[in-house]
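Quick one:
INPUT:
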């Protein structure tokens, strides 16, 4: 049945299926996206694969015309196995760049044999094949879209040496990386401004203006800024002072410009950008589930392709959430700016309104918070949060048990369920998190009646597993939000 659906999607070149499956062509030995513009091969000459890694493991080479590495990403939670979902997140974080499958399996609490069996069943490829495809696709994007030297690309993609990098490309593409760059028209020279520019694909529909508006209202002065059609941000990456800019690009992409990001951390920064702007959200699945509620169906018509804005740093978001307790979004943003001005790390080279890095928990552990307008209770809560993060009692690894995280965070005096769910929703990227006590959500559910958090939670059972997206829809309708 799936093959028949895939066949119709392939012949129609239906963009809604782009990234959901790949087409291997036996006569050419190439695998393509379902939207490939090449002449469609005969049905008896193709086979379908659930992932690019599965097609590669079956012996097919990536198509140089439709570029499978540019397909919209598949969200980690789209699989049917919790272990596989967590494994994919770890692999995306580079878990197999330096470790083996046995180590990965140990982190997931299963045997390596069982992990391989799960990956074969749900992804169609082994964990090593997934990691290999991830490295190759990221390197291919850098070859085509940037002028980075091959040595830097090899490092960014997680290859231990340029020789291994070249060998992998020759085996997969049948030609050397430099030949691929010449084929694409690149010249290999570094840009004059030393900026690195990438185009990041997303799954349509995508309303970049909505995300910009969300970030504009909450941008911490000195650390991030929104102006016109762009979002700017300063990051600390392995001690390095880095800046990035995100803009809307041509159809199907956003543009990411990076300054000062070390090559070995490029993949991590790109993945964090994808998470913050939720580029891989499964929009069709979300729409199908939430449209069953007439209220949300109406909102989806006005806000198609809803996204949950992520966070660059879990501690930073938790601080921002505490500052936002019982005050307006504007007031919380003002407090965040004062906190950064007093306790943030000044940039060596301020630019474009970016002046500081957000303070680390060690800096806030004994901060007095004088003269920034913060009430004593909030100041005490911030110090307790910083202490919990420094001691390791609270951390923001998205792969941790969510119930354990909720208990650890709410054990801090001054932090309740609303803050925990909000942090899970944005920093841990949990698609089913729901801050049910949020006044904006309660008001949006029924402006004329007083709705209790329990009533909202009961109503939201039908929204699972996309309750975080329902919350963003409701916030968008009222202009509220954390």
């Amino acid at each position: 049945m799936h093959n028949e659906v895939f066949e119709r999607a392939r012949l129609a070149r239906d963009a809604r299926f782009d990234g959901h499956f790949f087409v291997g062509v036996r006569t050419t030995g190439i695998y393509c996206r379902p939207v490939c513009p090449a002449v469609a091969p005969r049905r008896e000459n193709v086979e379908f694969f659930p992932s690019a890694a599965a097609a590669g493991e079956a012996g097919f080479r990536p198509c140089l015309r439709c570029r499978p590495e540019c397909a919209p990403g598949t969200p980690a939670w789209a699989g049917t196995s919790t272990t596989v979902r967590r494994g994919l997140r770890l692999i995306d974080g580079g878990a197999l760049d330096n470790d083996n499958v046995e180590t990965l399996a140990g982190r997931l609490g299963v045997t390596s044999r069982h992990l391989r069996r799960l990956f074969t069943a749900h992804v169609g490829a082994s964990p090593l094949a997934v990691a290999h495809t991830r490295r190759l696709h990221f390197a291919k994007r850098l070859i085509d879209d940037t002028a980075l030297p091959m040595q830097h690309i090899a490092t960014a993609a997680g290859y231990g040496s340029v020789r291994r990098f070249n060998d992998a490309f020759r085996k997969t593409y049948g030609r050397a990386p430099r030949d691929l760059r010449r084929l694409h028209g690149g010249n290999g020279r570094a840009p004059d401004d030393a900026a690195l520019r990438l185009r990041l694909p997303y799954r349509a529909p995508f309303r970049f203006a909505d995300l910009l508006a969300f970030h504009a209202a909450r941008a911490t002065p000195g650390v991030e800024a929104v102006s016109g059609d762009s979002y700017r941000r300063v990051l600390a990456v392995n001690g390095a002072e880095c800046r990035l800019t995100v803009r809307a690009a041509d159809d199907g992409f956003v543009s990411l410009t990076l300054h000062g990001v070390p090559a070995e951390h490029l993949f991590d920064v790109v993945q964090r950008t994808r998470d913050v702007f939720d580029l891989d959200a499964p929009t069709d699945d979300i729409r199908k589930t939430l449209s069953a509620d007439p209220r949300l169906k109406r909102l989806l018509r006005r806000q198609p392709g809803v996204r949950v804005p992520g966070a660059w740093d879990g501690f930073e978001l938790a601080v921002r959430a505490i500052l936002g307790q019982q005050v307006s979004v504007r007031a919380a943003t003002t407090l965040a700016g004062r906190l950064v001005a007093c306790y943030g790390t000044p940039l060596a080279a301020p630019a474009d309104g970016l002046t500081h890095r957000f303070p680390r928990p060690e800096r806030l552990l004994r901060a007095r918070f004088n003269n920034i307008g913060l009430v004593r209770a909030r100041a005490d809560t911030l110090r307790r949060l910083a202490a919990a993060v420094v001691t390791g009692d609270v951390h923001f690894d998205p792969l941790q048990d969510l119930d354990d995280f909720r208990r650890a965070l709410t054990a801090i005096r001054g932090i309740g369920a609303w803050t925990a769910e909000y942090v899970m929703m944005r920093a841990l990227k949990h698609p089913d998190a729901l801050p049910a006590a949020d006044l904006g959500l309660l008001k949006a559910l029924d402006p004329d009646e007083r709705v209790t958090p329990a009533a909202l939670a009961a109503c939201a059972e039908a929204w699972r597993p996309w309750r975080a997206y329902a919350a963003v829809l409701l916030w968008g309708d009222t202009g509220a939000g954390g």
